[in-house]
């Protein structure tokens, strides 16, 4: 039982990070019908920029409170990622908006590798230590189940951000414009909505969330690295599809479900398959889920716009 | 946004006299390894690998360029071919079958894998298909990496070594041939064997392209709905594209295993799939000549960078700022972006005889 | 141009005539390893070790066959990729090297060894530890480091006999290195009377180990063994601490690095153990000097494999001296019967080309660094 609860907690932590990244995929897909392959790498950019800021600030003004360091890191990483996200859309995708579908997809793959290579040039290939600015000292709320303040922090921040995004999309003017553009850019344009502006805003918001996810990810695992964004990016995409791509609550549910599936999968697969499969197959769960969802229920768990796009 | 070939100096002059062009290409293909040999055997080895990549690129081009199905897990078929050879012609299981059994079997298994991938994903288009195929490639790799337990099939991450070389009619291609006192390097033997495969593949694909099947693929690529409406069995045609494309991958993989003598899962990473994709993007999707040029360019690129970029940087800056591997990644990624933005049809665009004039769905 | 050369040769010859055989011959020896890519640090380390050996030998002015020999290092980058490794091996044999130190990773060494074998050039790896490398029956392949079997064996026995661990969980990263080491470790534990409580797996790009660690925690093992590199071992150590696990953590030489200490931070304790092949450098006659000399020459500390690359290079040179020839066919037999006192311990090869009785040293974390506990022969 303790193990079960502990695995649930592990799944919630990684799942809430997947969910944050999945939101970015789903927003862009909802509006443009494009898989922004480079989105996962924005997570990496966010983490490394934050790390650079924290390191520089710590060297310049030693003895600052960890929370101030963390906030400073975020304060730099988020705008940088937003700018990068905007540039990617402006330079890479805007011209290809009416091109055949393969073109923007191949561009997106190119952008993803370009970001990784640039990061490799700037920060080198080594794994960097990301300072754990929130305490990781384990607490034991009940016998056998361990949780650290950092994990609670991660889940709380992720949920707060998701809530904020929901409010933005459902209540604000920009949100309404986004929804209208997602429905149909041309008609939205005729209604006086600046579709280009809305699309840029979507990229910017998604990139900001990716930056925050990057900081959370790096703090949780105390590591930052030029290729760290690829796998979480892929998994977050799976989460977005799982929840029903283009659907914001779907991305959140998908992220959490995927986190839990991976956690329980790694924990119990050996029993479930009588020892034939084991945790070495942990990384294929995401792909198997992805394939199964697309084939059997392409609209995802929570449904909405997709079938025709697929 | 479409650039037609007439505005380009290179293809235009190429097209001038096709009677000269053909013998020239043949001569070049035959003489290239001899020139390379003068520069050192390692360059012949690079050419040998380039031909294997040409074969891969031709296969992927069938799927992506002809039928318009973006496959990001193509290297899985290469892996299937390579492992088939390794299973059936190495001490691993103690089986040593000749190439004329192993190579077709590898191709057949790869084709089966292609159908296995194609069948459930037929409904998917474009970007979704890309992601699912990517997942498929990773799943195959992960299985190869882990199937050493509970029963040892693939020998896991350790890979399989001491694989039998290609032996044709008693001639072992991994040894230098002694012909009337002349030493013919094993690398040259492999080159001509691979070249024969590539030539065969090119002839086959050119026939296919102008056949009913090729036209059906072009129709599906350009507008699937319309293709269906005029009575093309799109399911069948897509499956055929997957299976045939995979076959080429399987053959190439088998030859790779024989040539290298060692296979391990690390040779079949996602990055390899991306590299093959870039080859056809760079050369020109759908155009055979472009694909061949793209494959050769990208295989030779790391070697050229190693040879020229490092000394050049040393001369300019006194140290190596960007090492060849970083430069290669940089160029690959930029190539993908810039090609799509500026010349989506590739360096040598496909002639549009059997496709739409403006190739919107290429 | 040709004429110039001729005149130069004549002049050299006339000079040489005065001093009976005082001419200098240049002998090129290759080094191959990843100088770019994720494993670049290991390749660079090996290259520096090999370079230091060459510089030492040149400083001594070694005479072979009556000529003073000037050694030259030809360094190539194999990116730790099997296919690139074969191209690089071909290039080295093209360039007329008389011997090769390398490759660094087993995945590169195995395909490359076939090319060296055909070219008849001895190759000595400083760090490829896959047992398969020397099981191919090649005459030209040598290794100056204990292989995964030897290392896993030693650590497995140590865990049961010395650390008194009864239940041990094993994790590996599904690379040739990690899996080979973990298998050898698990077998040694079983044959020493210990119990493998669980076998879990991850990969060499993973960062999240919480799920498998939670599963392991429920088994309540005395020790956890990780077969893999420092980049994963460090977050693994942190997550063990985060889960409140008190089991001992053990790794092989992949986790026995300075990077591991840097990255794992306060998650390491006296109950973290690791092994390195060979005898602790500071216990060797020339070890401490080697360390300072290396630091002086290259400005950074030894990563892991530099001393082995140094010994590999020295073995080639010693064999050439013993055979009094720089020709591979002549000195290869001398390599077989070599007995050389290296910086990592005595170097002698068995009939497969593996190092004889390679020593393994167990370390634990103590006061900010790895402290040697015991050397197992």
TrEMBL record, chain A:
Keywords annotated in UniProt: Amino-acid transport, Cell inner membrane, Cell membrane, Membrane, Transmembrane, Transmembrane helix, Transport
Transmembrane segments: 12-35, 42-61, 67-88, 100-123, 143-169, 190-217, 250-269, 284-303
Record's keyword annotation contains Nucleotide-binding: no
Pfam families: BPD_transp_2
InterPro entries in alphabetical order: ABC_transp_permease, BCAA_transport_permease
Mode of membrane association: Multi-pass membrane protein
Compartments in which it is found: Cell membrane
Signal peptide stretch: none
Coiled coil (UniProt feature): none
Family to which this protein belongs: Belongs to the binding-protein-dependent transport system permease family. LivHM subfamily.
Protein name (database record): Branched-chain amino acid ABC transporter permease
UniProtKB/TrEMBL annotation, chain B:
Transmembrane segments: 20-39, 51-77, 97-119, 126-144, 180-205, 239-262, 274-297, 328-350
MF (Gene Ontology): ATP binding
Lineage: Bacteria, Pseudomonadati, Pseudomonadota, Betaproteobacteria, Rhodocyclales
UniProt membrane topology term: Multi-pass membrane protein
Subcellular location: Cell membrane
PANTHER family noted in UniProt: HIGH-AFFINITY BRANCHED-CHAIN AMINO ACID TRANSPORT PROTEIN BRAE, HIGH-AFFINITY BRANCHED-CHAIN AMINO ACID TRANSPORT SYSTEM PERMEASE
InterPro entries to which the protein is assigned, alphabetical: ABC_transp_permease (IPR001851), LivM-like (IPR043428)
Superkingdom to which the source organism belongs: Bacteria
Keyword annotations from UniProtKB, A to Z: ATP-binding, Cell membrane, Membrane, Nucleotide-binding, Transmembrane, Transmembrane helix
Name recorded for this polypeptide: ABC transporter ATP-binding protein
